[in-house]
Write a structure and sequence with these properties.
mainly beta, 2 helices, 10 strands, globular, binds zinc ion
């Protein structure tokens, strides 16, 4: 796998007061992308436990407020490359670590049952963003929409709607997720995607 490209995406202060990193002391491969002033749209899934959305690996609870990445101890059962030992104090994500808030460039293509309680949705990302071959890892993220896969049972869809209402985000048919997401940000420009 190639080294990730790393961008610093500045957004308006109302997106949680993200402070751009200082001009000095950045990684040699850190690019400021001055045209990126809107958060970047990404797609991911959560475990739905009760009415709580948890990240599938780290089991972090996601709420309505922006999430901010930090390097965490490795959860049990997760691969050995979870982090450098011990967790580092520098920025998260770190290209030599596995930390950061994960998202894909596009919605998952398979919407079928992939284990009970896995809810697909959209996020916006900003701050430090690493672009890997398979997706992105970001410093900051916020949920903007949840999907209602057509294969979900009525009770499953109702559960997703309840969470969406609590978070103040839309719950939309899966095929509308991309459009719903783009009301809150924009896809990573093609020029910044992995080759
Ligand atoms: Zn880390």
């Amino acid at each position: 796998m190639s080294r990730p490209r790393i961008y610093a995406i500045r957004v308006q202060p109302e997106f949680d007061g993200f402070i751009p990193p200082p001009a000095s002391g950045l990684d040699a491969d850190l690019f400021n992308a001055p045209d990126l002033i809107q958060p970047v749209v990404g797609f991911r899934k959560w475990l739905l436990v009760g009415d709580e959305l948890l990240s599938p690996l780290a089991r972090t609870s996601w709420g309505a407020a922006p999430m901010r990445a930090r390097c965490m101890p490795r959860p049990s059962g997760v691969g050995r490359n979870w982090h450098k030992v011990p967790p580092h104090a520098g920025p998260a994500p770190d290209p030599d670590c596995a930390c950061g808030l994960y998202a894909l460039f596009a919605p998952h293509r398979l919407w079928g049952p992939q284990g009970p309680g896995l809810v697909p949705g959209a996020v916006v990302l900003w701050g430090r963003i690493e672009v890997h071959d398979g997706g992105m890892r970001a410093k900051c993220a916020r949920i903007v929409a949840l999907a209602l896969p057509s294969l979900y049972s009525p009770s499953g869809k109702a559960a997703v709607r309840r969470v969406a209402e609590r978070l103040g985000v839309e719950a939309v048919p899966a095929r509308q997720l991309q459009a719903a997401a783009q009301r809150h940000g924009r896809p990573l420009p093609a020029a910044l995607l992995p080759a």
